[in-house]
Amino acid sequence: MPPYRNLNAWKHAQRLAVECAKLARGFPPYEQEALADELRRSSYRVPISIADGTARKGTRLCRASFDNARAALAEVETILEIGRDLGYIDASAYGRVESVATEASKTLYGLLRKMPEVEALPAREKSSPAA
Predict the structure, then answer these.
(1) Could you count the other beta carbons within 10 Å of the beta carbon of residue 38?
(2) Planar angle of CA 23, 24, 25, nearest 5 degrees
(3) Is residue 89 domain-resident?
(4) Confidence of residue 122 (pLDDT cuts 50, 70, 90)
């Protein structure tokens, strides 16, 4: 079994992606290629980025993947709020999926907290043009 499948953050993110895909099906037809598609894409990126991070060699690359997952999760939470405010997601469904998003966020933050801090990449020196 791949190591990411043992991570609670990945499990919550995977569940969130499935829930979001189901919710997106209920958006109106005119939103299927806009907000619904963005919800699916962002929610899929969360578990994918976590899995990607576990496959990376080195703390910096792993952390960058986990940061990407966290950014995608922020997008998902925002899109869910927009969908709720537009009436595409009822209060019950919103509460259910928001609790999954909260668990994914907490466990992902826990993963990031356990990782050692890494220094920023040094700025590249500009090479001078050949004479």
Answers:
(1) 17
(2) 90
(3) yes
(4) low
pLDDT given at position 18 = 98
Number of domains in the chain: 1
- What does the alpha-carbon distance between residue 55 and residue 112 come to, in Å, rounded to a whole number? 15
- Is 83:101 a contact under the CB 8 Å cutoff? no
7 φ/ψ angles, rounded to the nearest 5 degrees? -85, 130
The dihedral of CA 55, 57, 63, 64: what is its sign? negative
110: which residues sit within 8 A by CB, 6+ positions away?
9
Query: Could you tell me which of 73, 69, 90 has the C-alpha nearest to residue 39?
Result: 73
CATH of the domain at 71: 1.20.1440.60
Nearest to 49 by CA among 67, 37, 35: 67
- pLDDT of 113 above 80: yes
Residue 128 domain flag: no
Residue 6 reports pLDDT greater than 70: yes
- Alpha-carbon span 22 to 19, nearest angstrom: 5
